[in-house]
Design a protein that fits this description.
Layout lengths: L1 H10 L5 H20 L4 H7 L3 H11 L4 H40 L3 H39 L4 H42 L10 H42 L5 H25 L7 H23 L2 E3 L10 E8 L4 E5 L4 E5 L7 E8 L4 E7 L3 E8 L4 H16 L2 E3 L8 E6 L1 H4 L2 E3 L1
Parallel strand pairs: 1-8, 3-7, 3-10, 4-9
Antiparallel strand pairs: 2-5, 5-9, 6-7
Amino acid sequence: MEKFLENLESQLSILDESERKRIIKRYQSELEEKIKDGMSEKEAVQSLGSMESIINSIYKEYHLNEQYSKEKTSLGGKLNDILKSCAVFLSDTCAEIAYYVTHVSNKSLEVFFEVFLKILLLVIVFLILKLPFLLLENLCYFLFDFLFYPFDSILAILSEFIIGVIYLMLCISLSIYMFKGYAKIEKKEEKKKEIRREPIKSSKEARNYAFIILKVILYIVVIIPLILLSIAFLILTVLAFFLVYKGVNIIGLAVLLIGILFLTVLATTYITDALDNRSRSHTLALAVAIIALISGGILLVDNIMNFSYFKTLEESSFQPIVESITVDIDKELEVINFHGDVEFVLDNEIENEKVILELEYYDSLYDVQIEKDSSSMFIFTIRDDFEIGNLHYLYNHGLEDLKSGKVYDYRNLNTVNMKIYGNEATQKLLNIR
């Protein structure tokens, strides 16, 4: 009935406030009489006819033009309704906030300080607990960097993610343990006392908007990052299985990525279910995630141990070229090679003040640059502009090494190993660094 009367009043915005109140009071009295005679509220409202017919009869009663009323409603009336709705919404929201703040603050001062001290204690405990997890992260990073290069970066990210999830779950568990008693006490008190809320001006619309705002914030802060993380792990999983298909023995990494993918999807599902007030069982998916994490981790360690690691590129699929360059040396010169070794080879058959530079480098990826001024000669490599040929070269040769179970120090791909051939007189002019 109240909803009907509110709707009716909003439709009569073109009338004066006194006239609207008189009409509303008249229809309210009529509805109350019908309810007293045994009708339900719904039946009483329906007996008055449709809202359109009621409005039309009121317009005729006040000799109003229907077109005028529409124009009035669409301009000033509608603006007034919008402003009034905003005011009502703000008033309702403030009333709701005031009620809940008052409800919480009605607890005793002792309980308030107890909760405050527990929160402070939890923060201190969380900070202390973080220390061993940080040490564990650094230890894993050190071990991976020392033992499993070039897979150290991937393994470090995975270990950091797993350690972070364990730390987060531990913090959540401690928080629930510390404060779960208050929820039980509050429920018992409400059952015993059957506390009744004082009637305040409130509407479901205000609560719904507040809940919608909260859901939007949670979706932006939590759900969307989790979805993006799931997509990233899905791509990594597909790439891992593609490498397995190509013959690279990293099945452990692929299974581990499946476990992490299931874990991120499950976390997203649990949170969305809680926001939508749904209760579903994900026991099977959780069991698959745990099994994949454990078995994938064990297999990954075994896969890594079966690879052979080399500090050089001598036996790899990447093969360098050798290029010779003749350079004139007429005075003392400092030779600096930024990306490799320099060796002087004595050859007295070479003319005075001339040297032959023999450069060994990987020309498919890098070019050699030699800059010479009055006192120095610098040798360094520069990366070729990106071309599909570079990617093709890296993919084929790197994949070939991985398929054979060998991993080399690919950082040496940008090195230039140089031999300088010259006679004794020219050698005295060179200061090699």
